[in-house]
């Protein structure tokens, strides 16, 4: 299970590198660096960093489910294209289709949180439990900051308001 998280984390970072200059031109509309740090620390714990042991070996079905959930998060991230940013930036559009029709507009957070919870339940490791709780808390915090920031954006031809998105 550790290897799954390590490979996913490295792939996630690699995907963030191309096109970063295009994203950097849009203004940052909110700061969620604390939430990001909490989430990164949780992922590091699930990848095997930190105190404690890895618990029991995870059943193959749990490993497969975690792989599927992390692929789901990655597909959602890729569907954003150049609109994805680790920062909360003014969007060109608020996605409403594909994976973003799920999970209240936050499929990346939902999939990563679910994968973390499956990991913790499968390994029964206290470290993984803490890591999963950190991830769930971090993404919940960041989603709240994003929703509050996007609620103030008025719709036009390219961007809908978060209030309209929620309808």
Characterise the protein shown here.
- Residues 157-161 have low confidence and may be disordered.
- It is globular and about 45 Å long.
- The longest helix is centred in the last third of the chain and has 26 residues, at 126-151.
- It has one domain.
- The protein is mainly α and 167 residues long.
- The chain is built from seven helices and two strands; from the N terminus they run H-H-E-H-H-E-H-H-H.
- The protein has a two-stranded antiparallel sheet.
- It starts with a helix and ends with a helix.
Summarize the structure.
With 167 residues, this protein is an all-alpha fold.
Please outline the helices and strands.
Elements: H1 2-16, H2 20-23, E1 28-30, H3 33-46, H4 60-79, E2 88-89, H5 107-123, H6 126-151, H7 162-166
Antiparallel strand pairs: 1-2
Helix pairs in contact: 1-4, 3-6, 4-5, 5-6
Q: Distance between the terminal alpha carbons, to the nearest Å?
A: 38 Å
Q: What percentage of residues falls in helices of 4 or more residues?
A: 55-70%
What gross morphology would you assign?
globular
Structural class: mainly alpha
Strand content: under 5%
Mean pLDDT: 81
Q: Output the radius of gyration.
A: 16 Å
Poorly predicted runs are 157-161
Number of strands: 2
Q: Order of SSEs, N→C?
A: HHEHHEHHH
Number of helices: 7
Multimerization state: single chain
Q: Can you give keywords for this protein?
A:
167 residues, 60% helix, globular
């Amino acid at each position: 299970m550790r290897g799954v998280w390590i490979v996913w984390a490295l792939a996630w970072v690699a995907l963030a590198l191309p096109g970063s200059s295009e994203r950097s031109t849009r203004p940052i509309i909110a700061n969620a660096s604390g939430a990001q740090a909490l989430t990164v620390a949780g992922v590091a714990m699930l990848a095997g960093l930190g105190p404690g042991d890895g618990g029991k070996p995870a059943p193959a079905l749990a490993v497969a489910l975690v792989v599927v959930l992390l692929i789901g998060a990655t597909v959602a991230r890729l569907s954003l294209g150049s609109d994805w940013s680790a920062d909360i930036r003014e969007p060109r559009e608020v996605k409403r289709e594909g994976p973003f029709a799920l999970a209240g507009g936050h499929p990346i957070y939902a999939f990563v949180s679910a994968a973390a919870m499956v990991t913790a339940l499968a390994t029964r490791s206290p470290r993984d439990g803490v890591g999963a709780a950190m991830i769930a808390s971090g993404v919940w915090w960041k989603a709240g900051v994003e929703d509050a920031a996007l609620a103030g954006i008025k719709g036009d031809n390219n961007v809908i308001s978060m209030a309209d998105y929620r309808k």
